[in-house]
Amino acid sequence: MMQLISQDHYGEFVEELADMYRLRYRVFKQRLDWDVQVSGDLEVDDFDAFHPIYLLQRGRDGRVQGCVRLLPSTGPTMLRDAFGVLLNGESPPASPSIWESSRFALDLHNDAAAAVSGIAKATFGLFIGMVEFGLARGLSAIVTVTDLRMERILRRAGWPLKRIGAPQAVGTTRAIAGYLEVSRDALARLRREGGLEQPVLWAPVTMATA
Amino acid sequence: MHRVFQTFIDRLSDSVDRADLQSALADAAAAFGLHCFAYLSLPPRPDDKPLLISTYPAEWTTHYLQSRYERFDPVILQAQHDTEPFEWGLGAGTMILSKRQQQFFDEAAQFDIRSGFTIPIHDGRGPVAAITFAAHERHPAFSRGVERHGEVLQFMALHYHAQVRQKLSGDRIIAGVALSPREFDCLRWAALGKSAGDTADILGIKRRTTVFHLENAKQKLGVRTISQAIARYSASTRTTP
């Protein structure tokens, strides 16, 4: 099950958000050892202060197993304010039809990791959720800062990253910025590759895309 | 609880200055039955003063900052040591205190600060801030409140820290551009003639991380060379000493 949580609903979903910050702690602090800000077992950074929209994925057991953070490119973004060096001298995107995704994280139980060509179904689910969100908002693209490992997964999933500049070493990882297409084609491709026919987001969002 | 958190988030995003930030957290704390709070942000350079936003008596906070108490305040020391939130004072926890620290607690008690719940915030290099919710005395309601709402308080603390960093970063604005704390530090050391390697040693980060932050700073300032970035930095620090 997927949920979209925007600022005016943070209060209502405070437990889900706390679950998400714990998931991010496990993935970014414990597994990837990134230089992130933590308190106890929660990870929250400065960009969470700009009231992003969060896309959460819950597993069968009800806990948050996947998440991604979405911010409009017309305001502060990681690419503009923290990773400008990845722009290769270009201006950062600033358009109502482009949002930025960051903090893409998944932490799956082994038994939940049903996979298609080595990529978990849950991964496809989150990608599809991002495209459905984009279509509902009338976006043309999602810009993102990610790493080479994730870039390979995106390519294999049929949602290739259109690079902005060359990869650069950032801390322990190789970072890369690029655009992800938001279109009905991209949605159809991901659904086909992932073997997921149904919309992943709830009805009102799906209806907005119709 | 949900409504308190939502109101807190909304008020934080509407805050423009320190007074707004102070009352946003004061009201949220009050709604949880916590009578006062103190947010202490540790400076990146040990000789600088920490940033303190609190509803403690002004007489105490002034004295605290002037005496540089953050350097041996046992609560801050524990927050620097561990990222887990903790309760302290009046029988909670077991702190081994030096004579000076015992005196410190005695002084705080004169201002009715005897126990509290402290939430440490760390980044990749170590402690950066701590938020304490304090009580006059240690009654069961305080512990119960902390137990029940501990996670939300922790969550609020992290959001608070992020907002304070965003809203009160005026001292890192160069030529109209806000630099991140790391970018500002790297540029400041470059302006003092330090190489990327020296700066990396001083800040305890990798050389290539220093180079990365300097490249970002150049990009933000719209200049091609470090010398140009340093010139912008120097010009801006001359006008705002």
UniProtKB/TrEMBL annotation, chain A:
<keyword id="KW-0673">Quorum sensing</keyword>
<dbReference type="InterPro" id="IPR016181">
    <property type="entry name" value="Acyl_CoA_acyltransferase"/>
</dbReference>
<keyword id="KW-0071">Autoinducer synthesis</keyword>
<dbReference type="InterPro" id="IPR001690">
    <property type="entry name" value="Autoind_synthase"/>
</dbReference>
<dbReference type="GO" id="GO:0061579">
    <property type="term" value="F:N-acyl homoserine lactone synthase activity"/>
</dbReference>
<keyword id="KW-0808">Transferase</keyword>
<comment type="similarity">
    <text>Belongs to the autoinducer synthase family.</text>
</comment>
<protein>
    <recommendedName>
        <fullName>Acyl-homoserine-lactone synthase</fullName>
        <ecNumber>2.3.1.184</ecNumber>
    </recommendedName>
</protein>
<dbReference type="GO" id="GO:0007165">
    <property type="term" value="P:signal transduction"/>
</dbReference>
<dbReference type="InterPro" id="IPR018311">
    <property type="entry name" value="Autoind_synth_CS"/>
</dbReference>
<dbReference type="Pfam" id="PF00765">
    <property type="entry name" value="Autoind_synth"/>
</dbReference>
<dbReference type="GO" id="GO:0009372">
    <property type="term" value="P:quorum sensing"/>
</dbReference>
<keyword id="KW-0949">S-adenosyl-L-methionine</keyword>
UniProtKB/TrEMBL annotation, chain B:
<keyword id="KW-0805">Transcription regulation</keyword>
<dbReference type="InterPro" id="IPR000792">
    <property type="entry name" value="Tscrpt_reg_LuxR_C"/>
</dbReference>
<dbReference type="InterPro" id="IPR036388">
    <property type="entry name" value="WH-like_DNA-bd_sf"/>
</dbReference>
<dbReference type="GO" id="GO:0003677">
    <property type="term" value="F:DNA binding"/>
</dbReference>
<feature type="domain" description="HTH luxR-type">
    <location>
        <begin position="172"/>
        <end position="237"/>
    </location>
</feature>
<protein>
    <submittedName>
        <fullName>DNA-binding transcriptional regulator, CsgD family</fullName>
    </submittedName>
</protein>
<dbReference type="InterPro" id="IPR016032">
    <property type="entry name" value="Sig_transdc_resp-reg_C-effctor"/>
</dbReference>
<dbReference type="Pfam" id="PF00196">
    <property type="entry name" value="GerE"/>
</dbReference>
<keyword id="KW-0804">Transcription</keyword>
<keyword id="KW-0238">DNA-binding</keyword>
<dbReference type="GO" id="GO:0006355">
    <property type="term" value="P:regulation of DNA-templated transcription"/>
</dbReference>
<dbReference type="InterPro" id="IPR036693">
    <property type="entry name" value="TF_LuxR_autoind-bd_dom_sf"/>
</dbReference>
<dbReference type="Pfam" id="PF03472">
    <property type="entry name" value="Autoind_bind"/>
</dbReference>
<dbReference type="InterPro" id="IPR005143">
    <property type="entry name" value="TF_LuxR_autoind-bd_dom"/>
</dbReference>
